[in-house]
């Protein structure tokens, strides 16, 4: 993740965004432990069949 962050900053972007599937606590905890912060959160539910 650190390599991706450095490449993003070197490319001129100021924010590196990740998409984490709903309820994936392992992924959320990994990003939190790496110092990432939530800047946007979107939740949805599937359409009823």
How would you describe the overall organization of this protein?
The chain is mostly helical and 49 residues long. The chain has one domain (1-49). Helix content is 37%, strand content 0%.
Count of distinct structural domains: 1
Question: Average pLDDT across residues?
Answer: 80
Distance between the termini: 38 Å
Order of helices and strands: HH
> Using DSSP, what is the number of strands?
0
Query: Largest beta sheet, briefly?
Result: none
Our count of helices gives: 2
What would you call the structural class? mainly alpha
Return residue spans where pLDDT drops below 50 for at least 5 consecutive residues: none
Gyration radius from CA atoms, angstroms: 14 Å
Shape: elongated
Task: Tell me roughly what share of residues is in helical segments.
Answer: 25-40%
Strand content: under 5%
């Amino acid at each position: 993740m650190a390599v991706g962050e450095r490449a993003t900053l070197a490319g001129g972007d100021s924010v590196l965004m990740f998409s984490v599937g709903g309820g994936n606590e392992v992924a959320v905890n990994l990003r939190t432990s790496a110092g990432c912060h939530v800047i946007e959160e979107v939740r949805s539910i599937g359409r009823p069949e």
